[in-house]
Amino acid sequence: MKIIDHKLGGARYDQTAHIGDVIAPTLIVVHGTGTRIDKGSAVDYCKKNARKVAYHIIIERDGEVVQLAPLNRRVNHAGRSSWKGRQWCNSFSISIGLVDPGKLKGTPNKAMAFYREWFTEFDGLQAKDTPHHGRGHIWLPYTPEQHAAINEVVAAIKAAYPGIDIAGHYQISPGRKIDPTPLIDIAALGGTAPTLDEGMAVAVESTHKTLAKKSREYKSTNILGSLMAGGAVSTSVLEAVSISNIQATKTYLDVFTGFVKAYSAPVVIGACVFGWLVCEAIKHWKRESYEAGNYVPSGDT
Questions:
Q1: Tell me: the pLDDT tens digits for 5-18?
Q2: Do residues 179 and 102 make contact, with C-beta atoms less than 8 angstroms apart?
Q3: Are residues 21 and 169 located together in one domain of the fold?
Q4: Total Cβ atoms within 10 A of residue 232
């Protein structure tokens, strides 16, 4: 298998609608799709979905390799992530998704996927705990065909992009993601498997929060929230709730009380409730986009 013009020779090319800017890849990220395992299910989802997420390459259970985007174009697969001090791995990584149902609940004899499909001991279920993946999960092993295919794909990518690193999603988003399953040896694919450092995970989380506050999306969300919340009244109340300083909170509440006295209390309270609901909806939308990595914070490339 060779790569020509950033496409895998021998792979089926089925382009996703979610392709971004040109990138210079320096990292391979291995994922577990965490989807239904029926052939084509993960590919169909990644071709078009509301969250605009996709992988560059998907490896089906039977070993078929499907490429959805040129390897030098950005796709949204990593979300909040960091590798060797560099944030937002979507901007410099190639993603490979191994079709699997994700973590299962049950025992090695019988366990259920999140979409309520059962697997049994005849599927080769295994229980395995790691510092990265946590405890108590059951996993469906990848097939021999998938193992063979990913080794071939990784070898081709390494030949085309000399010096490229490789890591699992759980390594670039420690504490947040646990894919791919612990039943594949990332190190054997040429990567490293550092132990999960809780301090590092906290530091990465803190950095991402800082970046989020600098982002265009964060600023526009706050502006929209303020406007939809009915202006200064609801904004003052919402801000007061999040302020830890008691005296500052009292000041905001005094302002609110003044508005209640000056205007009809039901109107003011209704505006505040409406504003709170709108802001909560915006926060939920922003969080989904944040998790999926659908935007790059201002100043980050």
A1: 999 998 999 999 99
A2: yes
A3: yes
A4: 11
